[in-house]
Write a structure and sequence with these properties.
Elements: E1 8-19, E2 25-31, E3 38-52, E4 55-67, E5 77-80, E6 83-91, E7 99-106
Antiparallel strand pairs: 1-2, 1-3, 1-5, 3-4, 4-7, 5-6, 6-7
Length: 111
């Protein structure tokens, strides 16, 4: 694994539940400790348009590769330069804990 291929810096976030002023639950996103500037490679793979609620939305499938980070799961999201990536799958090739290959989508929502 060559260090030069990880030229992007991403933040990995997890969903948290906070309370609003009246004590009701509010979903928010927060950086996972130590994962606010992780080196990664981001490769858009394909794009297509979806018809959702009678509006056309563009969706891009993206492959994100990074060094192994314990605790990264599909329920997390990644942010790169203001773009939110919803994780579809997190793969640890050969279970060697050397790198993660993440399949993600962006464009339909903000996580």
């Amino acid at each position: 694994m060559m260090a030069g291929k990880f030229r992007h810096r991403v933040a990995i976030q997890q969903k948290t539940i906070a309370t609003d002023g009246s004590g009701g639950p509010v979903e928010t996103w927060a950086d996972i400790t130590g994962m606010s500037s992780v080196p990664a490679s981001i490769e858009p793979l394909q794009g297509h348009e979806l018809l959702k609620a009678q509006t056309i939305n563009a969706e891009t499938t993206t492959k994100i590769t990074m060094r192994y980070q314990a605790g990264v799961i599909a329920a997390n999201r990644i942010i790169f330069e203001g773009t939110f990536y919803n994780l579809q799958s997190v793969i640890d090739p050969e279970k060697k804990h050397r790198e993660l290959i993440i399949m993600a989508s962006e464009g339909l929502n903000e996580g």
